[in-house]
C-alpha cells in the first residue's frame, strides 16, 4: 500500500500504465465494495444513486473549469462524442489530428454517408488548418505518445467562431485545466480520474447545446427524473443534464469518491510531480525532453518479447503505435522509475544476446 497526496493506493511497484487503467484510491475501491455488498443484500435503492451522480458531476465540472449545470454524464468517451457527431448537418467539415484516439475520430468518420467529411492533419498543423473547417475535434493529450495539443491556439480558434471538441481523457486529473471556452469537453473516468470504467462526462457550452441533439434522450435526462419515467410529451432538463444517460451506478459510486478528492488537490503540484518522474525516466534512457507524463519508448527488441520481459520484472506498461508507452501518475515514485529503467536495460541486453553476433557483410 502506498500513500500519495493524502490517500492510500494498493498500486504495485512498477505500475506505469495509468494511461490504460488508473488505480483508484482506497476510499473509492472501498466505496464500490460496500455498494456491491448493499446490492447483493437487497439494500440498494435507485434514487439513492442520485447523490453519487451529482457529486461526481460537480467534481468533474471543477476539474475542467466549467459550471456544474454544463455537464452531462455518460458511460464512455465515444458514446458522448457520438451525440455530437450524429447532430452535425450534412456537409460539415471536421478536422482531427492524425493518429488521434479513435474514440474521438471514428464517431465523425461514421457520419460519412450523411455527407460529413473528416480530415486528418498533423497535430502541430491543427490550429493553422482550422479556418477551413466547421469543427475541430482533438484529444488534449495524445494517447499514443503524450503530445499536448495547442490549447491556447484552439481557444483562439473557438473564439473566432469554429467550434472545438476536446477529449481530455489523457489530461484531466494531472493537468490543470480551465476549458470553459471549448464547445464540448469529453472525458472517460477510468484512467487519470481513477474511477471505474463506465463513468464519463461531457461539458457543453451554450453554443454547443444549441447544436447537439439529445439522441439518447431517456427518463434520467428529465428535469425531475423520477417524474419523467412514463409517457409523453418530451420533457428534458433545461441544462446539460438533458444529455445524461441512465447512469452506470457502480461506476458513479467510485467516481463520486475519486473525483472530489482529485478536484480538491493542487493540480499544479500533481503536474510537477508526474512531469518530474517522466523527466527523470527520459533522462535515464537518453530520450528528449517532454511536457507529458506519458512517455513513448522505442522497444529494445521485438515488442511482444520485451513486454513479456518487463512483465516478468514487475513493470506494467502498454504497447501503442509501435512503441512502449509508460505513464506516471500521482501515486508513482522514483522507485518505479528505477525499476522500469533497469528492466528496459535488461530486456535490451537479453534481446541483443538472443539475436547473436552480427556477421560482417560479405
TrEMBL record:
The keyword Nucleotide-binding does not apply. It comes from the Bacteria. InterPro entries: PyrdxlP-dep_Trfase, PyrdxlP-dep_Trfase_major, PyrdxlP-dep_Trfase_small. The keyword Lyase applies. One of its GO terms (molecular function) is lyase activity. Keywords: Lyase. This is Selenocysteine lyase/Cysteine desulfurase. The lineage of its organism: Bacteria, Bacillati, Actinomycetota, Actinomycetes, Pseudonocardiales.
Amino acid at each position: 500500500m502506498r500513500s500519495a497526496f493524502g490517500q492510500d493506493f494498493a498500486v504495485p511497484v512498477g505500475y506505469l500504465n495509468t494511461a490504460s487503467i488508473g488505480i483508484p484510491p482506497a476510499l473509492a475501491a472501498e466505496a464500490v465494495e460496500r455498494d456491491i455488498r448493499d446490492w447483493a443484500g437487497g439494500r440498494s435503492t435507485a434514487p439513492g444513486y442520485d447523490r453519487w451522480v451529482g457529486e461526481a458531476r460537480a467534481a468533474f465540472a471543477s476539474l475542467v473549469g466549467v459550471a456544474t449545470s454544463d455537464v452531462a454524464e455518460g458511460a464512455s468517451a465515444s458514446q458522448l462524442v457520438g451525440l455530437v457527431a450524429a447532430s452535425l448537418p450534412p456537409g460539415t467539415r471536421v478536422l482531427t489530428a492524425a493518429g488521434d484516439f479513435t474514440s474521438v475520430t471514428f464517431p465523425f468518420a461514421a457520419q460519412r454517408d450523411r455527407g460529413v467529411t473528416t480530415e486528418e492533419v498533423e497535430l502541430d498543423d491543427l490550429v493553422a488548418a482550422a479556418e477551413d473547417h466547421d469543427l475541430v475535434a482533438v484529444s488534449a493529450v495524445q494517447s499514443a505518445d503524450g503530445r499536448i495539443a495547442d490549447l491556447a491556439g484552439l481557444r483562439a480558434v473557438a473564439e473566432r467562431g469554429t467550434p472545438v471538441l476536446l477529449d481530455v481523457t489523457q489530461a484531466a486529473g494531472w493537468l490543470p485545466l480551465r476549458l470553459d471556452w471549448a464547445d464540448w469537453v469529453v472525458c472517460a473516468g477510468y484512467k487519470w480520474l481513477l474511477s471505474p470504467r463506465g463513468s464519463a462526462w461531457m461539458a457543453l457550452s451554450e453554443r454547443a447545446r444549441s447544436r447537439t441533439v439529445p439522441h439518447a434522450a431517456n427518463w434520467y435526462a428529465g428535469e425531475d427524473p423520477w417524474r419523467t419515467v412514463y409517457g409523453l410529451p418530451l420533457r428534458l432538463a433545461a441544462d446539460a443534464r438533458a444529455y445524461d444517460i441512465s447512469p452506470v451506478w457502480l461506476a458513479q459510486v467510485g467516481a463520486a469518491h475519486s473525483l472530489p478528492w482529485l478536484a480538491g488537490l493542487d493540480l499544479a503540484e500533481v503536474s510537477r510531480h508526474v512531469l518530474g518522474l517522466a523527466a527523470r525516466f527520459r533522462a535515464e534512457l537518453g530520450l528528449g525532453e517532454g511536457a507529458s507524463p506519458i512517455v513513448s519508448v522505442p522497444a529494445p527488441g521485438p515488442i511482444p518479447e520485451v513486454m513479456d520481459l518487463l512483465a516478468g520484472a514487475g513493470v506494467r506498461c502498454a504497447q501503442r503505435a509501435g512503441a512502449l508507452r509508460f505513464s506516471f501518475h500521482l501515486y508513482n515514485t522514483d522507485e518505479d522509475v528505477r525499476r522500469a529503467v533497469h528492466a528496459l536495460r535488461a530486456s535490451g541486453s537479453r534481446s541483443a544476446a538472443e539475436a547473436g553476433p552480427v556477421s560482417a557483410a560479405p
